[in-house]
Each structure stands twice: as C-alpha cells, then as structure tokens.
Amino acid sequence: MLTWADEMLVLRRSTAQTGRQWAWCVAPRKCSAEMATPELIKAAIEAHGGQARWDRVDALEATLSAGGFLFTAKHRPVLRRIRVRASAREVRFAFHDFPRAGETSELVGDEVRVVGPDRAVLARREHPRLAFSRPRRQLYWDHLDFVYFGAYATWNYLVTPFLFLREGFAFEELPPLQTPAGPWSRVRVTFPADLPTHSRTQDFYFDAHHLLRRLDYTADVVGGWAHAAHMCEQMREFDGLQVATRRTVKPLPFGTHPLPLPTLVAIELHDLRVCPCP
Predict the structure, then answer these.
(1) CA proximity to 154, closest of 84, 229, 239, 253
(2) pTM of the model
C-alpha cells in the first residue's frame, strides 16, 4: 500500500510528465449522486455552524498554546500564545511572530517558509513531507519540519468538519463507540491524496449533539507506528461556529482505548476570530 508521501511523489511525477501543474487550492465539493455526503456528516457540519455560515468565512485567526511529549522528543520548544491564521479556502496556514517577533512561519500549498516583516523569504522548503523519510527526522526536527507538521495539523483541526464539504473524500459509517457519556457515532474518512493531513484514513467520532469529540489517526510523518487518539473538549461558540478549545492526543497502540500517558500533544485555544469573505 502506498503511503501519503509515496502517492504525492507519484502525483508529482505524473504531472511533470503531462506538463500540468498541480493546484493546492482545495476545490469545493461538486453536487452529484456519486459524491453524496452521509447524513451524519451533514448533521455535524450543521451542528458546528452550518454550511451557509462557513461559505461566508475567508479565514480563522486564533491564539493558541501547545506542548507535549512530541515537542520534547523532537527537540522543539512549546508554543505559548502564538497567533495563527488558517485559510478556509486553500491549504494555507501561518504562525505569526514565530520563530521571532516580526517573522511569519507558514505553509502555502506544498511549501513551508519563513518570511520577514517585509515578506522577504528567510528560509524555504518545497515538498516538505518527503523530507521526513530521512533518518535525521527520527532524532529531531528542525524549524521547517515543525512548521510543516504544526501547520497542516492545526489547519486540519480548525477547518474540520467543514473540510468535508470539499470534493475527493470517501466516507464509511462504522458501529458507534460506547463511552461513559453515551454512544458516539463513528465515521471512517478517506482523505484525497493531495490534501496534507496525518494519514489518508482517519476515524471521526461525534456525540449525540453531532459535535466532534474525537478523531483517531496515524501521524505518518512521525512514523507508521504513531497511532493516536485525539480528544476534542470544551466546545465554545465563536461567531456562530462551535470550536473545541482544548485538545489532547494520547497513544493508541491498538483497539479503541488510548493509553492514559504520555500526552503526545496538548493544545489550548485561547481565542478565535472569524474573518469574513471580502
């Protein structure tokens, strides 16, 4: 089975041979019987604010903090009240004043870069996911490694479940997960090969109010063994959107019961602002 990185390499070779360029803007979902969205996903989109409201969103701006065992293992500093911006229309995410005041570290399509206050490029890496196959990444990540991982991951977190309005997703409803809070509906989602995310296949869990409570995935850039359960807690409303303000990621070596320790990643969302379309 091809990994995400393998598929992207094949895709780039294919487009190079045909002379076409790949566009990283994620196209809106086309309305067709063959691409019907499950009712459970439709209900989740409505519960988190609805498609009509999301269609008026250009970007989300937030302040967040993050840390955990993964930061320690990869020799990266924790994030303390970092300002970020996530595009609602394309694969684009920015950490402001990071790594230094006035600088911006960002993911734009299939490139990560650091730019100065005048937007001059200070550092750049194309096709950053392919670099994780090299042995050094097992020992530590450099700044651009972290920017890629942190940017694509947080972009996914902030724009889900509205991300599923785009074309190219496949869905499979699974038996619900029984929890102390009641049963959580479960959907297995296969992501399009061109979309940067943790793994092509992920499981999403929704509570009785259709709010996202958990997602399971393999963090492929960390390793094929890096199975994790990602808990979404303390939902708050921001400009009509329901957003988890506390997230914790635990190891999930097998089954559906994560280990209590260590906390691989913990994210706290301090505030969020919705930027409307111009």
Answers:
(1) 84
(2) 0.87
